[in-house]
Amino acid sequence: MAARFSGSGGRVVVLHLLVHLLSSFQPQLVFGQESQHGDAVSLLKRASGMIKLNQYDDALGLLNAAIEANPNLSEAYSQRASVLHHLCRFEESEKNYKKFLELKPGISSVEKELSQLLQAQSALDSANNHFDSGDFSRALDYIDKIVLVFSSGCLKAKILKVKLLLALKDYSSAISETGYILKQEEDNLEALLLRGRAYYYLSDHDVASRHFQKGLRLDPEHSELKKAYFGLKNLLKKTKSAEDNAAKGKLRLAVEDFKAALAMDPSHSAHNVHLHLGLCKVLVKLGRGKDAINSCTEALEIDEELVEALAQRGEAKLITEDWEGAVEDLKIAAQKSPQDMNIREALMRAEKSLKLSKRKDWYKILGVSRTASIAEIKRAYKKLALQWHPDKNVDNREEAEAKFREIAAAYEVLGDEDKRTRYDRGEDVDDMGMGMGGGGFNPFGGGGQQFTFHFQGGFPGGGFPGGGFPGGFGFNF
């Protein structure tokens, strides 16, 4: 071609040819730029559709492609910032907001979103700090009122919220929150773990175990899931052993098993209330009243409406001879469960024991045993009557008179075989019309009955000065 177009004329022809060729390529270059811009806009529109469907990962992929196709597409940065904000990927979101504001400065709506992002980021940090310090209610306020308001898709905040609900023992709400998470991401291991724990603390152990097992199928080496699953398994095994030993009458073994089960998870109140009750019942059978009271009280602190724990504590108080405490517990139990004949029978025993505890112990007053013979009782009475005769206790006459009344009343019961037998059976000898040391029995007269006691052999010294007791109560020799 250089040979054919030599000379000035040839150069002109070549120049025209080059111009023609360049003009033919220019539309193709312009079309390529337009095509690339069109692809970015198309990607942006598709991303918007994904966002409406809450398909954020797919939306981010499309927005990344749109920005790669057109790095100056401001709307793509705005949308990407919003998605990242929603997911609480705060640092990435902040960069995208700032890039948009470089391309389009002064857009107030975007500046507001950036401000909200910074608030949410600060609130999430505060919530974590309060969680670590044990201030669970305040941490939950930060999550609910700020983080999830501005970043509603924040998985980190949702997981933290569930942990806070568990710490606050709001297990039903924890189950609801993890349900929302698993609906969007059914294989989320942390949500499975936390949901299982919520069911565990509600003592719904079968459902809890299924959640732990599902998580372990997805990741057999997940340490927290393994700990939760095998911890539950061991707790149920030890509980069954305790209950089996109690049923077989192996009471001391049952005590050790109940205590071991309680030590496994002291915070598991819904399950431990039954362990405390089981332990209390075994301790009552063993006659260990004080320990039984402690165990039943532990159960009642968890569930104050647990009638069986009240009844068993009443039985334990009978063992420790706390008659008034036994009557109090058993009365409440009987009111709560009026058809339970065992509780009513226990209450009757407690009331009888309380009544007996308040009557005079005539044996103790005379200083004799319950197996003392009539002769021993008479000798004891003579001795005490001499000791406490008012005329021999001039300096403490009032005390002596009171003592003598008591001694005489004791002898009136124990010196009579029929009355003594009735007294030993626990019958109310006050109904005999004597008063037994009360206002109706007064050996010194004063409007009461007069009694004359005859003792063979008399008292040493031939009697008391004055020849008898005031009010007509005398000794005849």
Automatic annotation (TrEMBL):
Q: Where in the cell is it found?
A: Endoplasmic reticulum lumen
Q: Which InterPro entries match?
A: DnaJ_domain, DnaJ_domain_CS, J_dom_sf, TPR-like_helical_dom_sf, TPR_2, TPR_rpt
In the record, which residues are listed under signal peptide? 1-32
| Pfam families in UniProt | DnaJ, TPR_16, TPR_2
Origin superkingdom: Eukaryota
The record's section on SMART domains has: DnaJ, TPR
Q: Which PROSITE patterns match?
A: DNAJ_1, DNAJ_2, TPR
The J domain extends over 361-427
* Keyword terms of this UniProt record: Endoplasmic reticulum, Repeat, Signal, TPR repeat
Q: Which GO terms describe its cellular component?
A: endoplasmic reticulum lumen
Per-repeat ranges for TPR: 189-222
Q: Which CDD domains match?
A: DnaJ
Subunit and interaction comment: Interacts with BIP1.
- What does this protein do, in the record's words? May play a role in protein folding in the endoplasmic reticulum.
- Put simply, this protein is called DnaJ protein P58IPK homolog B
Q: Which gene name does the record give?
A: LOC105044618
